[in-house]
């Protein structure tokens, strides 16, 4: 007998989930971050896209997670993992704000329950050994019409590079962006950019100062430009996935592709020249 979950890859499951659920209808603040939550004692349970605010203290985050996991705040140790599941920070100081650790959408907060007498210890809250899983034989599944397997096989015959993500994007009328596989991507565009240059970032005509030029671990291949914006319109403080590339205040930093930036005489808004009639 074959477990039905073997017919779909993890990426297919996530893509289907995103397609079915669609974009969130809830208003989202700039400081909001969507993070997954896992638990040391809950091996089969996780919480996806929990809304947190970067201005929350670690203590406030723990208090919110208590209602989801049942672990007491005092028995909770938090670790932050990147998109690859690697631990990049331990949230040890309850008074530090979450944004200090540069969380991003899709990152995971892993709760370690250090209470040996916790109700979730030994995994007894998740004892599913008596639950019968739905199973179907290969023969019965292959005999069915209009299955996902047959649909996928047909699509791959038509296009060997086909993926479910591409199919969903196509049906939604969205542009499918190809993954960057060139480690020197946009190296030519980056040649004319130097640290200290004033710049303007597009879209949005956001102004700032170039603070870094080069490659960034954890981001797609190729060259990136680190920018310190004149206003708090960025996404970080110069730290990307636990590594600091430049220094700036929270929400003043950003990483952009060289093609999305121009360098030149772009003074801060307060430094604009005014005519005599506009001077006060």
Automatic annotation (TrEMBL):
Gene3D superfamilies: CAP Gly-rich-like domain, Phosphatidylinositol 3-kinase Catalytic Subunit, Chain A, domain 1. GO terms for biological process: cytoplasmic microtubule organization; post-chaperonin tubulin folding pathway; tubulin complex assembly. The keyword Cytoplasm applies. GO terms for cellular component: cytosol; microtubule plus-end; nucleus. Its main location: cytoplasm. PROSITE patterns: CAP_GLY_1, CAP_GLY_2. It comes from the Eukaryota. InterPro entries: CAP-Gly_dom_sf, CAP-Gly_domain, TBCB_Ubl, Ubiquitin-like_dom, Ubiquitin-like_domsf. GO terms for molecular function: alpha-tubulin binding; microtubule plus-end binding. It holds the Pfam family CAP_GLY. Residues 222-257 form the CAP-Gly domain. Keywords: Chaperone, Cytoplasm. It is found in: Cytoplasm. Belongs to the TBCB family. This is Tubulin folding cofactor B. It comes from Chloropicon primus. The lineage of its organism: Eukaryota, Viridiplantae, Chlorophyta, Chloropicophyceae, Chloropicales.
């Amino acid at each position: 007998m074959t477990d039905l979950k073997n017919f779909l890859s993890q990426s297919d499951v996530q893509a289907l989930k995103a397609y079915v659920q669609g974009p969130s209808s809830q208003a989202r603040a700039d400081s909001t971050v969507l993070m997954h939550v896992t638990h040391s004692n809950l091996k089969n349970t996780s919480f996806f896209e929990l809304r947190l605010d970067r201005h929350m203290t670690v203590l406030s985050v723990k208090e919110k997670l208590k209602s989801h996991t049942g672990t007491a705040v005092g028995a909770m140790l938090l670790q932050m993992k990147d998109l690859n599941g690697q631990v990049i920070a331990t949230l040890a100081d309850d008074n530090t704000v979450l944004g200090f650790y540069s969380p991003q959408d899709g990152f995971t907060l892993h709760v370690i329950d250090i209470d040996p007498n916790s109700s979730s210890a030994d995994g007894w809250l998740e004892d599913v050994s008596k639950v019968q899983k739905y199973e179907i034989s290969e023969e019965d599944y292959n005999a069915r019409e209009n299955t996902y397997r047959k649909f996928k096989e047909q699509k791959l015959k038509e296009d060997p590079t086909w993926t479910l993500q591409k199919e969903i994007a196509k049906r939604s009328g969205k542009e499918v962006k190809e993954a960057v596989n060139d480690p020197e991507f946009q190296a030519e565009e980056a040649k004319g950019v130097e640290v200290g240059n004033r710049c303007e970032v597009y879209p949005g005509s956001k102004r700032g100062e170039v603070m870094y030029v080069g490659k960034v671990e954890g981001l797609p291949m190729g060259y990136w430009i680190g920018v310190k914006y004149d206003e708090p319109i960025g996404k970080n403080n110069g730290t990307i996935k636990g590594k600091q590339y430049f220094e700036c205040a929270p929400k003043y930093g950003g990483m952009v592709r060289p093609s999305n930036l121009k360098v030149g005489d772009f003074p801060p808004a307060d430094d604009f020249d005014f005519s005599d009639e506009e001077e006060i």
